[in-house]
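Record 1 of the preview.
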Amino acid sequence: MAQGVWVVAEERDGEIRKITYEVISEGRRLADALGHDLTAVLLGSNIKDKAGELGQYGADRVLVADDPRLDPYTTDAYVSVVSQLVKANDPALLLMGASVQGKDSREDCPRDLMRAWLRIVRPLRSRTGISWPHDPFMPGRPMPR
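->
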C-alpha cells in the first residue's frame, strides 16, 4: 500500500531553491493530515551536505541522489531517477514545485506514474478537503474525476 508524502527538492548551482522550502511546508501539512512521514528527494552533484537543511524545514528523511550526471538539471536524468525511486518505494503522494523545473519534470513523467498519482489524489481530495481545480500535469485543463 502506498505510504508517505514525498517532495522533489530543487537545487541550482549547489543551492536549494526557495520553492523547495515552500513545497516541504505544504508536504508537512499533508503528511500530518494523512498520518504519513514526509520524505524529500534531493538530486544533483556535490549536494549531500545540503540534505540536513531539508530536515530542518520538516522532512522526516531525505533521499539523496548525488551524481555528476545530475548537474546541470536535465529532464531525462531527473525523471529517470525520480521514477525509479517512486516505483521502488510507492509513496502515497509526490509533490513538485510549480516552477519551470517542476513543470518540466511533470510533463515528461511516465504514464504509469501519472496513473498512480491520480489513484491517490482523488481519494486524498475527499479526505483532506484540499481541492485541485486543474490537472497539475496539464495546467489549464480540468482535474480528472
